[in-house]
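Anyone up for a design puzzle?
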């Protein structure tokens, strides 16, 4: 990706590092944070050889068709408030995709972005925390803008999708706008302003879902999102539960 093109579209000046290939942009910024970097830094790569997803999964990161980027920030937030950074970033990425391409993007709680029933983007937030707050936070964002040549690998062929057929030339614009929207929402994170646009994009509210926990799974109706971005569900026996993202995932 062209760092200069990204820079020109950013609302605020930040350090940008752009490379052709790396193992993982999150790992690059972790090394930088541990070496004492205190500025906000954006790291972008054309491809990743060991892109990581949540729950120890890998993130398919072929050359040229996707955005693989991470942002190093040092927010003045409690560890609890930091849990909101991931859903906040999902709103930012969805707004950026919509703003640049005109294509409506939905969010699957907590942080997957869907278009046409397929996952087109994911977010992996990592950081170093003390009891008082965050030392640093790295927000990694992967967006499949176009379908890779040869398609997606077998394991994700059913679930993964791309934003559009020929959107690769929009990589810099979508990347910059994601950062702009992220910074915009981050300054208001304590007042939870992002919850409204987040809720508007959740596509399964009011629907029956399967809640998967460490002890098994159950069916429930997805009711709403609370101000801490927990998902409230009504079980079949009528009990209302508020689910944190930690150990629970949902299937629609
Ligand atoms: C997920 O869907 O589980 C999260 C995927 C996050 C992928 C991005 S790509 C840029 C950054 N570097 C990584 O190694 N992972 C994130």
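Challenge accepted. My sequence:
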């Amino acid at each position: 990706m062209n760092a200069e093109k990204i820079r020109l579209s950013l609302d605020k000046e930040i350090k940008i590092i752009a490379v052709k290939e790396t193992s993982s942009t999150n790992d690059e910024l972790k090394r930088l944070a541990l070496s004492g970097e205190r500025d906000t830094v954006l790291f972008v790569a054309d491809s990743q050889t060991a892109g990581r997803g949540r729950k120890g999964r890998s993130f398919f990161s072929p050359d040229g068709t996707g955005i693989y980027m991470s942002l190093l920030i040092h927010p003045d937030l409690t560890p609890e408030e930091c849990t909101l950074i991931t859903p906040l970033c999902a709103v930012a990425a969805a707004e950026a995709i919509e703003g640049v391409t005109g294509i409506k993007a939905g969010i699957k709680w907590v942080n997957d972005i869907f278009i046409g029933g397929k996952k087109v983007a994911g977010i992996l937030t990592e950081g170093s925390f003390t009891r008082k707050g965050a030392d640093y936070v790295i927000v990694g964002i992967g967006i499949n803008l176009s379908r890779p040549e040869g398609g997606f690998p077998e394991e994700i062929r059913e679930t993964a999708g791309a934003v559009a057929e020929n959107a690769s030339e929009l990589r810099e614009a979508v990347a910059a706008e994601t950062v702009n929207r992220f910074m915009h929402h981050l300054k208001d994170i304590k007042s939870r302003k992002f919850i409204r646009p987040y809720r508007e994009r959740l596509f399964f509210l009011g629907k029956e879902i399967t809640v998967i926990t460490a002890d098994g799974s159950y069916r429930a109706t997805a009711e709403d999102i609370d101000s801490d971005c927990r998902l409230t569900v009504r079980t079949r026996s009528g009990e209302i539960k508020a689910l944190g993202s930690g150990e629970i995932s949902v299937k629609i």
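A detail worth pointing out: The first helix runs from residue 3 to 9.
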